[in-house]
Design brief:
The protein is α/β, with parallel strands linked by helices. It contains eight helices and seven strands. The two termini are 31 Å apart.
Length: 258
């Protein structure tokens, strides 16, 4: 499998779900993994999982909505490891609602986390990647098929993920000749704590029935698993993906092929 020996990787929102699986896999494949999360206790716990099995990892508290927090986290990483080679912008939140069901407050919150979060961490990350020797690195943004096609009652979420796709393409083209690659992953519905929170919040009286519906809407007949997303992130972070930049990598059980 693809190796990341000698590389330092920051995974935002790395304390749970897809981010956790990416962090664990990167650690297994030789990277020094930094778990950036607003829950610093949970970040430390994931880092311990990696170090307990012989890997190298540590956690940092990171509020992706705050540029100062992003800059501080990356500065502390470089102080400890001398470089930052891989940035996985995984942190994100979601909500259910069409245009008129979406309050200005909810819309602003999703923009803050899902759009400014990618902007803040990428802004600080690219500056670091350009300043180090050798310069360059790899950015992987977690988008969604909701940024590519319409998903019912996901107005705000789809808006933010469409922005992530656009930021991915712009970043890829702007730095293509400076050693920085940027790609995004567009998952379908993945069974994570994110989905569990959605079920509890919006379908508390019909959780199992709604879960069945979520499984059934994928042509493969089930939701994805975080462990099935992480290997794609590993490939994109590896040297074997040197020719891949500006790509939207769909992994959705066939949903968008219908």
């Amino acid at each position: 499998m693809f190796r990341l020996d000698g590389k330092t990787a920051l995974v935002t929102g790395g304390a749970s779900g897809i981010g956790r699986e990416i962090a664990l896999l990167f650690g297994q494949q030789g990277a020094t993994v930094v778990i950036g999360d607003i829950n610093d206790g949970a970040a430390a716990s994931v880092a311990a999982e990696i170090t307990d099995t012989g890997g190298a990892a540590f956690g940092v508290r990171l509020d992706v909505t705050d540029m100062v927090s992003a800059e501080s986290a990356i500065a502390s990483i470089v102080e400890r490891t001398a470089s930052m080679d891989i940035l996985v912008n995984n942190a994100g939140i979601g909500m259910v609602g069409n245009l008129t069901e979406t309050s200005p407050e909810d819309f602003a919150r999703l923009i803050a986390v899902n759009v400014y979060g990618v902007y803040n961490c990428s802004h600080a990350g690219v500056k670091q990647m350009l300043s180090q020797n050798p310069k360059g690195g790899c950015i992987i943004n977690m988008a969604s098929i909701a940024g590519q096609v319409a998903v019912a009652r996901r107005f705000a979420y789809g808006t933010t993920k469409g922005a992530v796709i656009s930021m991915t393409q712009s970043t890829a083209m702007d730095y293509v000749d400076q050693g920085i690659r940027c790609n995004c992953i567009c998952p379908g519905t993945v069974e994570t704590p994110f989905v569990e929170a959605y079920l509890q919040r919006y379908h508390a009286s019909e959780i199992e029935e709604t879960r069945k519906q979520l499984h059934a809407r994928q042509p493969l007949g089930r939701m994805g698993r975080p462990q099935e997303i992480a290997p794609l992130a590993l490939y994109l972070a590896s040297d074997e993906a040197a020719y891949v930049t500006g790509a939207q990598m769909v992994i959705d059980g066939g949903l968008t092929a219908r």
